[in-house]
Amino acid sequence: MRIVSWNAPRGPEGKIEAIVSRGRTAITGVIRGRGARFQFVADDPRLVRPVELAETPPEESLNQSVIAKITGYPERAGDPLVVVVSRIMGPPGFLTTEIEKTLVFNGVVDVFPAEVEEQVLGVPQSVRDTEILDRRDLREHTFITIDPKDARDFDDAICIEETDFGHVLWVAIADVSHYVTPGTPLDKEAVHRGLSLYLPDRAIPMLPKALSAGICSLRPDEDRLAMVAEMEFNRVGVRTSVELYPAVIRSHARLTYEQVAAVLVDDPVDVPYRERILMTAEWAAVQHKRRLERGSLELELPEAKVLLDEDDPLRVRNIVKSIPNPQTKQAYNVVEEAMLAANEAVGEYLAAAGQPVPWRVHEAPDPEKIEAFFRFAAFLGIPVPKEMGPRWFSEVFESISAHPAKGAISYMLLRSLKQAQYRVDNVGHFALASPTYLHFTSPIRRYPDLMVHRALKEVWKKRGLPTGEESLRACPQKEKTGELSTKCSQNERRCIDIERKVTDIYRAWYMRPRIGDVFEGHIHSITRFGLFVGIDDPFVEGLIRLDWLSEEFFEYDEGLGIVRGTQSKRMLLPGDPVRVILAKADVIQGQLSFEVEGSVFSMIPPRHQPRTTEQPPARGKTDARGGHGAKAGGHKKPERPDPKSRPKKSRR
After folding, report:
1. Which residue of 284, 338, 468, 607 has the fewest CB atoms within a 10 Å radius of its CB?
2. Residues 449 and 439: beta-carbon distance below 8 Å
3. In this model, does residue 640 exceed pLDDT 50?
4. ∠ CA 339-341-347 to the nearest 5 degrees?
5. Which of 365, 431, 361 is nearest to 394 (CA)?
6. In which element (H, E) is residue 307 found?
7. CB contact set of 637 (below 8 Å; sequence gap of 6+)
8. pLDDT at 648 over 60
9. Can you point out the beta strands (E) in 177-238?
10. How many CA atoms within 13 Å lie on the side-chain side of 255?
11. Mean pLDDT rounded to a whole number for the chain
C-alpha cells in the first residue's frame, strides 16, 4: 500500500492512496450448488466480502475443495471478490486436500517461477578454475559432513586437528552468495520464501534443487566453494584466534548421525575417520560444558514425527516423539557445538566491524510470566531461587528433574521465554547466553545466513581482503537490513505455523479410525475453555472442553493456570494424569477432541486434595462452565478454540 500521512491536532493521520501490490492471488473454498447456480464458499473466515464466480466451474467441482484464482479485487465498499476456479483439490476433510489448502492459504507454492528456473539453467554444476583464484585451497583438508540419513543438501562440513596447545577447527559453509546475487529473480524468490519448509511428505526448499542439492551442496568427493571459519582453541576450550575467508574445499566423507553415534559408543561398525570423530567429540564436550556454565539453556521440547509408509504416503504408520537416544543426541551435539562456535565467531567479527546484519536475538523473559511461574512453583511447594543469575533457568530445570509435575513446571517456565527473531539491532541471545549471535551456517535453507555471508564479503572488500568474487554488489544499509530481518522473522513464524498445522492434520487423519478408543495421557496446559491433554503413544494432543465435564462446575484460576471444582475444591493442574476417550478427529481443523473416561479425578494423586493453607493471590478467576455458573447438561459441540497456548517451537 502507498500511504499519505500528515500532522493533525490529535496526532499523525493518513489515508491509503493506492494499493501497490496484492499479498494474495488465490484463495481456497468449497463449491456448493444452489439450484442451477454454483456458489463459492471461502475457507478463510476473515473474508467477509462476498465472493463471486467469474465463470461457471466444472460440474465435477461440486462439493469439492478448490483453489480459485482472484481475477478482480473490490474497489468500493460492497464490491465482491471475483474468482475463477483454477484447480480441484478433492473432497473436504481428505488428507491431501487439507494439506494443500494449508499451503495455498499461506501463499506457499511447490514450484519456482519460470524466471527463476531460467536463471538457474545458467548456473554451472561444477566449480571452474577461474572461480578459485581468489580463494584458499583447502581441498586436502579432511572435511566431513554429518547429517540425518535422509538429508539431501549438505551446507556445512567440519575438519579438526590437534595442536600442541589444543585444537584447530575449520567450519566450512556452502558459499551460496556466490551463486545468488542481490536483485536477481533467484534472490527475490529466496527473500519471499525466507527459508526451507519441511513437511512429513516433502521439503519445499528456499532455493531450487540445482543449487540446494547440487552445486551448493557439500557432496563428498566434489570441489565446492565455501566460506570458512578457522578457529583455534586451547586445552580448556577457550577460543584464542579466528580467521574468516573464502575457500574451495572437498568433502572426504558423508556421515550420518547414526554412524557418528556408533563411533562414540565404540561400536565395531566400519565408519571412516573414527579418530577425527572422537577428537571432535572430545572438543565438543568441553565446549558444551563451558556453554552450560555460562548460562546457556538446554531446551528439549519433544516434537511430533510423522512416520509415513514408503510405498503409500497417505498411510500414516505412526506419530512418535522425535527425541534422539542418548548416543544420537551426543552426535547431534558434536555438530551443534561446531556450528554455535562458528556463528559466535562470525558475530563477534561483524560486530567489531560495525556491519549491519540480521542478528539472531532472543530477549530476556517476560517479567509477568516469570511472576506467574513463581506463583505456580510456590503453589506446588517447590523452592525456587528468587535472584535470577545467568544459570537461574538451568538450576530450576535441574531442581525439578525428579518432580512428578516436571512436565507442567517446564511448560510454565518455557512459556515465559520469548521467541527468538532476526533484528538489525543486537540485544544478545538469552537462551544461548551469547552477546553477539547470528546465523552463518545454513545459507541453503535460511535467508539471514545468506545476508551474513554477503556482509562478510563486504567487510573483506573494504579491508582489501580476498572475497572470492570478481565483483560485489553493496549490501543494504541498516534500514533496509532491518526491513529484511523483520521479513525473515515473519517468514520463520509462518513456516513454524505451517509445519505445526500440517502435523496436526496428519494427527487427526491418523486418529480417525480410533474414535472411541481409551488413552492415558497428561494435562499439558489449561485454558478458560478446556484442558489440553497429551498422549505419548501415539504422540498426539487434544482438547477436553470444560463444559464437557459433567461432575461439577469448574472455576478457572488465571493467575495459576489451574481449575478447581466449585463444590469439591479439588484441583486439576498441568501435568496431572487423565484417562480419556477420543470423541472426534477433525481433519479440516487439525484438532482432536477428548472426553473423560469415568471421573476426571480417577488418576489424580493424593497431593491434589484441597489445600488448607492460604493460596498465593491469583489475578482473575472465571467460572469455566459457560461463564455464568449454569450447570452443564450433556455434551455440546465443541467450538473452535485457538490452541496456540502451546509454546512455539524454538529455532536457535
Report:
1. 607
2. yes
3. no
4. 100
5. 431
6. strand 304-308
7. none
8. no
9. 197-199, 202-204, 223-234
10. 31
11. 88
Tens of pLDDT, residues 508-564: 999 999 999 999 999 988 999 999 999 999 999 999 999 888 778 889 988 888 888
Spatial contact of 579 and 603, defined as CB atoms under 8 Å apart: yes
- Write out pLDDT tens, residues 273-291: 999 999 999 999 999 999 9
What ranges do the domains of the chain cover? 2-92, 114-362+422-505, 367-417, 515-623
Rounded alpha-carbon distances, angstroms, from residue 221 to 35, 137, 403: 66, 15, 51
The confidence score (pLDDT) of residue 212 equals: 97
- Cα separation, 360 vs 438, in Å, equals 5
Q: Kindly provide the b/e burial profile for residues 346-373, where b requires at least 16 CB atoms within 10 angstroms of the residue's own CB.
A: bbbbbbeeebbbbbbbbbebeeebbebb
For residue 538, whether the previous peptide bond is cis, meaning omega lies within 30 degrees of 0, is yes
Residue 321 to residue 540: CA distance in whole angstroms = 9
* pLDDT tens profile 33-50: 876 689 999 988 888 788
CA distance 239 to 334: 16
**Contact present, 162 and 279 (Cβ < 8 Å):** yes
**pLDDT score, position 69:** 93
Which fold is adopted by the domain 2-92?
OB fold (Dihydrolipoamide Acetyltransferase, E2P) (2.40.50)
First to last CA, the chain: 33
H or E stretch including 374? Answer: helix 367-380
Q: pLDDT band at 643, cuts 50/70/90?
A: very low
Is residue 532 within 8 Å of 524, Cβ to Cβ? Answer: yes
Mean pLDDT of 420-432: 96
Distance between CA atoms of 407 and 525, rounded to whole angstroms? 10
What kind and span of H or E run contains 396?
helix 392-399
- Helices (H) and strands (E) counted in the chain, each on its own, are 12, 28
Domain 2-92 matches domain 515-623 at the CATH topology level: yes
d(CA 411, CA 58): 50
| 515-623 placed in CATH 2.40.50.140 | yes
pLDDT in tens, 493-503: 999 999 999 99
Helices (H), 127-200: 185-193
The label of the residue with cell 501415539 reads 538
- Global pTM value: 0.87
Taking the alpha carbons of 219, 160, 141, 274 in that order, is the dihedral positive or negative?
negative
For the record, the C-alpha cell of 197 comes out as 519448509
